[in-house]
Write a structure and sequence with these properties.
373 residues; alpha+beta; 17% helix; 38% strand
């Protein structure tokens, strides 16, 4: 039996009646959760090193000649002459070591590092990272990493197959790097500081300016644009920039959120803001299923009788249509959350709901930023 199913989406009638509701006020958020303070930031570090002690799951030297090169360099620095020797170990692997140096990290403090294989190693489980210098974008060494790797998976294989769980070629070393050099940044020398909004918005920036000026009782903050507020450290009359940040970062501000709808087509997830509005529009949706089944019948003569075997075709076709829902107009200013609630009440699937939202946006009736992932 051969079955062919075609799923069509014709225009059926969908009725929605909703009443516009005033948006609820957003919650007050600390300024430290809305902005980044200029200069108070981390710095990325990277290094190239060698992992040893693997149980036969390291790089194949023929396929990863750089592993042999770094191993030779390390041994020669340790006083072992390996010139002209050929290495064929399977318990070493070349890796990239990455980390992020937090702001104001001091010499001797420890940071976490991530280790990732770059050759054809099968697993880093149980390996030990040999002392690896970590450099920043300026090429200077700021930390040194070393330690036992905690791999994020496991692998096993036999002669005819294998199994892998997680990612055994990547792992981390908690507190695996020690800071050897500090970032040259003096916060106390600043006379002014910029507050960079994570979500630029003129209204939010103006509210941050008003909150800071209200807390100090005078004009110490100035909105420069939708993403920047300047703080005059001298005008705060505090002892240092650190004291000014401490005074500012816990002030509460109500952020202004942009109307936005985010749709994930793979999982059928829909996330929307409370300020999303829909103009007057008529929406329709439905499902039609066309099913064609082939059931050929074989006809053949009796034993010792004359005749030929014949295949007699038989086809059955039918159409199934889900009940339609009556048409009605969505009133002006209706919130998208009310429309979604109505669609859920009607039993519309998430994927069909995404198609409806796309069509409303294409019609120009959805007044929000529409993000599809």
């Amino acid at each position: 039996m051969i079955a062919l199913c075609f799923r069509l989406l014709p225009v059926l009638l969908l009725g929605l009646a909703a009443v516009a509701a005033a948006p609820a006020s957003a919650a007050s958020i600390r300024i430290k959760d809305l902005v980044e303070f200029d200069g108070v930031r981390g710095n990325d570090l990277v290094g190239y090193g060698l992992v040893v002690g693997l149980n036969g799951t390291g790089d194949g030297i023929r396929n990863a000649p750089f592993t042999e090169e770094i191993m030779s360099n390390i041994l020669e620095r340790l006083g072992v002459n390996v010139t002209g020797e050929q290495f064929r170990p399977k318990n070493v692997a070349a890796v990239f070591v990455t980390s992020s140096m937090p702001p104001f990290a001091r010499t001797g403090s420890q940071i976490d590092v991530t280790v990732s294989a770059i050759g054809d190693a099968k697993s880093l489980l149980g390996g030990t990272l040999v002392m690896t210098p970590l450099k920043a974008a300026d090429g200077d060494i700021y930390a040194v990493a070393q330690g036992t790797i905690i791999a994020g998976g496991a692998s096993a294989e036999g002669e005819a197959g294998g199994v892998v769980q997680g990612v055994p070629t990547s792992g981390m070393i908690p507190a695996g790097a020690r800071v050897e050099r500090e970032i040259d940044f003096q916060l106390s020398s600043l006379d002014e500081m910029r507050l960079a909004l994570r979500e630029p918005d003129f209204t939010t920036a103006a509210r941050i300016e008003a909150a800071i000026n209200g807390a100090f009782g005078r004009r110490v903050a100035l909105m420069l644009d939708s993403g920047t507020v300047r703080l005059d450290i001298r005008a705060t009359r505090l002892r240092s920039a650190a004291h000014a940040i401490r005074r500012v970062e816990n002030l509460l501000v109500e952020p202004e959120l942009k109307a936005r709808v985010v749709v994930d087509q793979r999982s059928g997830t829909i996330v929307m803001g409370n300020d999303v509005r829909i103009s007057r529009v008529a929406v329709s949706q439905g499902n039609l299923t066309l099913r064609v089944e082939e059931m050929p019948l074989v006809s053949q003569p009796n034993p010792f009788a004359e005749g030929e075997t014949v295949v007699v075709p038989r086809t059955r076709a039918d159409i199934e249509e889900e009940p339609g829902i009556g048409l009605a107009e969505v009133p002006e200013g209706t919130s998208l959350s009310q429309v979604i609630a109505g669609l859920n009440a009607l039993g519309v699937s998430p994927r069909d709901m995404i198609d409806i939202l796309k069509s409303i946006k294409a019609a120009g009736a959805l007044h929000a930023e529409f993000v599809v992932r």
